[in-house]
Amino acid sequence: MVLILGVTASGKGQLAFSLAESLGAEIISVDSMKVYRRMNIGTGKPPKEARERFRYHLIDVVEPSDTFNVGTFLELANDAVEQIKRRNRPVIAVGGTALYIKALLYGLFEGPGTDEHIRAELLARAETEGAELYRELVKIDPVAAERISPNDTKRIIRALEVYQISGKPISSLQKQFNAEEPLQNWTIIGLRREKTEENKRINARVKRMIGAGLVDEVQSLLDESKPLGQQSRCAIGYAEIIDYLCGRMTLKEAIELIKKNTRRFAKSQRTWFRSFNNVNWLDIEPEESAEEILSRARTVVEN
User: Fold this and answer.
1) Please, which contacts does 291-294 make with residues 24 or more away whose CB atoms are closer than 8 Å?
2) Residue 282 pairs with which residues in a beta bridge?
3) Tens digits of per-residue pLDDT, 245-299?
4) Closest to 27 measured CA to CA, from 14, 16, 36
5) What span, in angstroms and rounded, lies between the C-alpha atoms of 92 and 5?
6) What whole-number distance in Å separates Cα of residue 55 and Cα of residue 2?
7) In 10 A of CB 201, how many CB atoms?
8) Domains identified in the chain and CATH numbers
9) In what order do the strands lie in the sheet with 91-95?
């Protein structure tokens, strides 16, 4: 059982494919947006050829109008692990959604229960105040705010709700849930690049997404009979193009904002990953080939 993690555009998807080919494994996606059908370009799903060669799990499992949460992910992921084991194949999990990775490794952090009145009030405020909720979170819980995208309304509301219910920042409660060892026997490989190199890769990825037809993909999703859900429409790459299509900014401004928000998301991923234990970090050089990275990863697995 191998888990490959890394920030956006670090090359973890390519390594997962190469390692699956090398080991005869099946792949579990640990990504909160790849679960949505027809959201292909902006989420960076594996190409069709790769998915025809290897069995991928937890990709295209819900409609863009549906909600999806970490509890549902963990249930489906654990089922996938058991299915793969019954077929006597190695398991490779790969992704960058830190909350999902943490749940897969250490179990589910529940926190305090919900309060319908508080949640309803926060939802109403989100409709009218927008970014003000995120600024409020920055003041009361800067640690959580660093990990949460300003576009992630659901998690912002949950963090504020926890604070109002318990009087404690959600980040302080999460620190109490800090398991030392994974629940299962995972070998964890992390890909790490210099920040300047990572930013170059992010910019190049955004350029490829636009060239591959991201604008048309978003327009097609908006044209569907069922509207995009709050989660899917807040995904980086989709939220900004929606604003462009609604006339709130130019395409050039939307593209630059995608790059900026992706870099911010990568920063939050790095913060999360520093809290994970037992990660075999591979520091990747700009000129290092996919074959060389695979060789290093195989050495970790074999050892």
Assistant:
1) 291/18, 293/11, 293/14, 293/15, 293/18, 293/191, 294/15, 294/18, 294/19, 294/22
2) 191
3) 999 999 999 999 999 999 999 999 998 898 888 999 999 999 999 999 999 999 9
4) 16
5) 11
6) 15
7) 18
8) 2-109+177-302 (3.40.50.300), 116-176 (1.10.20.140)
9) 56-57, 26-30, 91-95, 2-5, 187-192, 279-283
